[in-house]
Amino acid sequence: ELVVQFQVLNQSCQCLAWKPRPVGVWGTESQQVVAGYSDGTIRVFSISRTEMELKMHPHSTALTAITYSTDGEMILSGGKDGLVAVSSPRTGMTIHVLADHKGSPITALQCTRKQYHDFGVEGSELWLATSLDRRVSVWASDWLKDKCELLDWLSFPAPADPEGLELPPSLAAFCPWEHGALVYVGFGMQEEALFYSLRKKQVVRKVALPAFATALSLSPAAPFMALGFGERLLRLQPCPAGAPQDYAGHDDSVQLCRFSPSGRRLLSASHSALLVWEL
């Protein structure tokens, strides 16, 4: 059932994210969503009031990734030009613009909580940015104190880009069941998923894949990762090892997969199909 619909004339919505629930509040669904558009604008919509609450313009190019900070107080957005902006939905102001990935589109942004002095840096939040050129930056932040410190910078090797072929995206995500680790997939020397330890500063595990992945999601409830592929395939991979489960049914390459917050459902999308799987 369609509950509400928002339309922005002459602009394409490129990415969106739900505002996270406040800590300790259960049973209530977030009623705000942020969307990034092709003209470089960000719009915050209220589902309950069915209206646009805020419009900001932190980018001069199309947005390619967007997320909220873990407390919902900041919006992190990435553009086609590789710039990452940090904006406050309370004030409507952009407080940081980071140019470390400049020149390559941002393909993923994600935030996660951490202990304040964990990893030897201040801040209650870790966040990562991934760009199409196979680079991942990891940051520690305390937005209330205006702190944003680079914790790690990863660059993954790959053979020379093949002429005329569309390369798979570079994607990374924090590992919910392995503290201080992240998972990376993208065009590289081998078709594999890499587990990287932020403490050891090295790749600690590799999982062989049937092809280069086009989508990635990690379960918040159990040690499983979901991977989409260009061959119309969706794979559920137990970690650290185990026999994978493959699911067919898509009409085209799998562009997106996302676990539900409970981990009991998995949503996947291709060109014209949106599938929901019970796990």
Automatic annotation (TrEMBL):
Keywords noted in UniProt: Repeat, WD repeat
Listed InterPro entries: Beta-prop_WDR90_4th, WD40/YVTN_repeat-like_dom_sf, WD40_repeat_dom_sf, WD40_rpt, WDR55/POC1
Domain WDR90 4th beta-propeller: 1-279
WD repeats: 56-86
Coiled coil: none
Name of the featured protein: WDR90 protein
Organism in which the protein naturally occurs: Sakesphorus luctuosus
Lineage summary: Eukaryota, Metazoa, Chordata, Craniata, Vertebrata
Gene (UniProt): Wdr90_0
